[in-house]
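Quick one: C-alpha cells for this chain, please?
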Amino acid sequence: MAHHNTILTQILRLLPRHDFKRLAFQHDGKRRSDAMSRWSQFVSMTIAQLCGRSSLRDIESTIASQKHLGYHLGSGPIKRTTLSRANQTLDYRFYESLFSKLYALCQNRSGKHRFRFKGKLFSLDASLLDVSMKVFPQANYNNRKAAYKLHVGLDHDGLIPAFAAVTPGKTGDQTQAKLMRFPKGSVVVFDKGYNDYGWHNQLTNQGIFWVTRIRGNAKYRVLKRRPINRSQGITSDQTIEFTSLRSSKKHLRPVRRIGYRDAETGKHYVFTTNRFDWSAKTIADIYKQRWQVELFFKWIKQNLKIKAFMGNTDNAVMTQVMIALCVYLILAYLKFQSRIAQSLQQISRLIHLNLFARRDLIELFKPPPDTDIASPQLGLI
C-alpha cells in the first residue's frame, strides 16, 4: 500500500515555500527563534479555514490532537495566546503580497472568460463584514453598527479574485477601485456605486474599457442614435455627453448609452460604456456577468471564516480575511492544475471531511469504483 501524507500537508505543498520565506523576510526581517513564525501562523489559520474552526481555542485543540503531524507540516506546537499575539502584531500586508503571488500562480492554469475578446474581464464590488460595535469600536460604520469592508476585483478567467483589500466600513468603494491597476485592453464592470465620471475618463485614457449602469439623475444630451434590435431586448443605443456643471469642468469624453429590457424579469436597465464597436447585446451580456462577484462573496462567507473574527484589532481582522482569500486561491489552483471536475464547493467539503486523512489528494476527488461488493450476511444458507 502506497504511503501518503495527510491531505493538509499535500495542500500546503501547493504553495511555493521559497516564495513564502522570501516574502516573510521582506516583511518581518530576522525574528527571534522563539517567536511564532509566519509559516506556523499561516498553517494554524489555514486549518481554521479548512476545518471551520471559529476560535483560537478550537485551533489550539485541533492542532494538539494531531501532534504527530507537526514535523510534516513544518510548524511547531501552537498556543492560542501566541497565535493571538501574532495575529495582532505581524503586519497583515504580508498576506496581501502572498495573495498576489498566488493569483499569479493561478493565472497560468485558469481558463478563459466566455466572451470572444482577448482582453481580461474584471468585475468590481465590495461587501460589508458586520462586527460587534462593543468589540470593534474602531470600525464604527453608522453609529448603530460596526463593519469592515472587503473590496474585490474578480478576474473572470477562472473566477478568482485578482485584487482584494480590507478596510473600515466607511471607506468608499471608489477609493479602493482607484488603487487597482488593470492591464491595458481589459474590460472592467461595476455598478452605480463606482460612478465617478472623472475616474471613468481616466480609465478610457489608460486604454481600459468599462461597463456600468447610469445614475437615474444623470444629465446628458444625445449626440447620436444607432439602429436597435428590439428582438434582443435593446430599447436604445445612443452616444451621449454629460452636461452637468461638474462634468463640463472635467472635459469628459462622450460615452455610449444602451437601454436593455431583460426578457426573463421584465426589468429595464440603462448601461453606459466607452466601447462603441461591440453590439449592444454584448454590452448587456457583459454587465450581466457582474453577478459572478456577488456569487463569490456568497461562497466565501458560507465556506470560509470571515464572519466571526479571532482578534479585536484591525490587523487581526485583515490578517484573517486575507488568509481566507489565500486559501481560496490555493483551492482554485488545485482545481485548475488537477483539472478536477467538482465545484469549489464540493472540493472544500471533501477537504473539510478528510483534512487529516492519509490518502492521495487527487484520488479524493475521483468517483469511487463502480463495483458491487457482495456481503456474506446477505447470502442465503
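The radius of gyration is 25 Å.
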